[in-house]
Amino acid sequence: xxxxxxxxxxxxxxxxxxxxxxxxxxxxxxxxxxxxxxxxxxxxxxxxxxxxxxxxxxxxxxxxxxxxxxxxxxxxxxxxxxxxxxxxxxxxxxxxxxxxxxxxxxxxxxxxxxxxxxxxxxxxxxxxxxxxxxxxxxxxxxxxxxxxxxxxxxxxxxxxxxxx
Length: 164
Ligand SMILES: Cc1cc2nc3c(=O)[nH]c(=O)nc-3n(C[C@H](O)[C@H](O)[C@H](O)COP(=O)(O)O)c2cc1C
What we know:
This protein is mainly beta. It is 14% helix and 37% strand. The protein has three helices and nine strands, in the order H-E-E-E-E-H-E-H-E-E-E-E. The chain has a seven-stranded antiparallel beta sheet, sandwiched between helices. A two-stranded antiparallel sheet has the order 6-7. The chain has helices at residues 3-9, 54-62, 75-81, and strands at residues 17-23, 26-32, 35-39, 44-49, 64-69, 95-96, 104-105, 110-122, 125-137. The protein binds flavin mononucleotide (FMN). Flavin mononucleotide is lined by residues 16, 28, 30-34, 48-50, 53-55, 78, 82-85, 147, 150, 153-154.
């Protein structure tokens, strides 16, 4: 357990997102902080996902994901989507879909829809590269949530090593 290591890494500025996945009529979503833009042309986002998450199977099958940007203060949403997959995980939130069928949260600050164009193993996670095919800014006044604002929600201090 390493609280000080977790505190150090929380100073790397990261947003907090709900990543949606879908295949056919099956959908899921999970809270993620490890999301970033990695190219202008083409427009690419990358995310890092633990392959043991239920969402990973759907992401592999559906070859697509949505990124819903959370607003500062939406800790209840971050907490809900950080729970293991369940029938009511999406039912507790208002969401819609576009052509891709990916879950898009109505309360989000913004969302993006991406098609998977690459994957790379990254330690205990998998880096997934997505080409942005659609996106919408829903609330241009709102401030995005930062990872640090989620405090101990992800239990990261149990996951960091004690030393470098
Ligand atoms: C603030 C926060 C950030 C998180 N970031 C990630 C992340 O970037 N990648 C990841 O794989 N899991 C991340 N998680 C953990 C998942 O949200 C969590 O394990 C979830 O239960 C997975 O859901 P699923 O099994 O339904 O796919 C994060 C959790 C929290 C609370």
